[in-house]
Amino acid sequence: DEWLSVTNFFDRNPIMSRKGDFIEFKGDSSEIIVDEALKFIGKQAKADKPFLSVIWYGTPHNPFMASDEDTKEFAHLDTASKDQHGELVAMDRSIGILRQGLRNLNIADNTLVWFTSDNGGLPKITPSTVGDLRGFKGSLYEGGLRVPSIAEWPAHITKPRVTEFPAVAMDIFPTVAEIVGLPDSVMQKPQDGQSLKGLFTESWGKRDKPISFSCFGNSALLENNFKLLFNGKGKKKTFELYDLATDPLEEKNLYDSHPDLA
Asked: Is pTM, for the whole model, over 0.85?
């Protein structure tokens, strides 16, 4: 119904397209798109209509651009690291603006806010954005795959907690489809994800459906604790197998020692 977007990354003072008409904005893009999203959400709330709003941040993304105010706490870092962390400050602030905006509209309790990142962190950023995990964006090691995800839905998620249940971005659609009661006919086959609606209120054990990835000629298959990795990009094609429960840093390749499992 409404869209405001741009081709790829966007930082400060972006030029964006609103349904085909270009508009010049001033300020940090994170706050700009949240402000614009709240305008749409406000119209829906005033009309007492449900809504879906996808807020796709352009930051943090190289080349990094942040205001002097947002980078002042990181002056001791190199330029790229300083500006990436500055972009995160602005993004964090915009998320606060979004959540407060929902409260101001009196719809926060029954609005599901679902935050997730799209890939792992970048190399050469201080401090590291992947912790001690192996690999970065573009790789299929955990440093390239594992991302933060937070769901807030006060009327339904009444006891905040952390779960270690394996989940993936492909789970978002089937989860939302179950929540709003869409018919099974909307589910195309095969369907990679699964609904996580029950996980919001109860603890789950093992995942029934594996998680798969493919990127730059490499691929990975995750089945709960175990991860099979195929490196197909180089001249030598190799397989690796890891138990992420005991080896989250992916240092011990089990492929040769556990051929049946592989």
From this structure: yes
